[in-house]
Write a structure and sequence with these properties.
Layout (H helix, E strand, L loop, with lengths): L11 H7 L4 H6 L11 H7 L4 H10 L9 H5 L3 H31 L4 H37 L9 H6 L6 H13 L6 H40 L1
Helix pairs in contact: 6-7, 6-10, 7-9, 9-10
Length: about 230
């Protein structure tokens, strides 16, 4: 994808036309379609979304290997960041995972029970791992950050603890892709198999960008707050 520099003066529609994968991203900011010819700054102002942070997230989801600068990290609104991450979790659980499950069931209609059972069991285990991962962040990490910015201390917990235990929930999706690509027999039509793979690829890419935001934006930002309060 050709890299372009997103600016507040650009029409928001042009960002989406440049990268359609931003569609679920803007939804997580609470921005619906139907904004006409309005610019990014105008739409963000209307929905009370910090323009700089919105553009930062859109850039991360568009440019491969993009790394936020220290100045970008320090200017973010932490409440908006946490809200965006939490909304992303809900999106994964209620939409992405559901779509993959539906694609698995659709492929089952024409596959042997043996292969379907393997894929279903594998993904069911992965789903439980994802739920556990996201619930930990929602119930432990994010409340810790909210307390921290309010000046409250949480004995025995710090962002480094989260960083050390921040598991990579994308890795098993690679294993699932390999199973479907290499070992599911030809009696499964390409249409259903490709739809399932496409859903997995989209989810995996989205998770990669989400993890980058947590690792390269959230953690450094919280570390700076912790240091300032010591």
């Amino acid at each position: 994808m050709k890299q372009i520099h997103f600016t507040p003066q650009m029409k928001l529609a042009n960002l989406i036309l440049h990268n359609f994968k931003l569609l679920p991203v803007i939804t997580r900011f609470g921005i619906p379609l139907g904004f006409g010819e309005k610019t990014v700054a105008e739409v963000c102002s209307h929905y009370a979304v910090p323009t700089d942070f919105f553009l930062l997230v859109c850039t991360i989801y568009t440019q491969d290997n993009y790394m936020p600068t220290p100045s970008e990290i320090q200017t973010i609104d932490i409440h908006t960041l946490l809200s965006y991450l939490s909304n992303s979790h809900q999106y994964y659980l209620t939409e992405r995972i559901v779509e993959i499950e539906q694609s698995i069931h659709a492929m089952n209609q024409s596959c042997s029970n043996k292969h379907y059972s393997i894929i279903e069991t594998f993904f069911d285990g992965y789903k439980k791992e994802v739920i556990k991962h996201l619930e930990y962040e929602d119930s432990s990490v994010f409340p810790y950050v909210y307390k921290l910015i309010a000046g409250e201390k949480t004995p025995g917990f710090g962002i480094q603890q989260f960083e050390k235990n921040h598991t990579n929930i994308e890795e098993k999706l690679g294993d699932l892709k390999n199973i479907i690509i290499k070992y599911v027999p030809n009696d499964c039509p390409s249409r259903e198999r490709n739809k399932l793979l496409y859903d997995i690829f989209l989810f995996e890419e989205d998770l990669n960008r989400h993890t980058l935001i947590e690792d390269k934006v959230l953690i450094p930002y919280v570390e700076s707050i912790e240091k300032s309060q010591n």
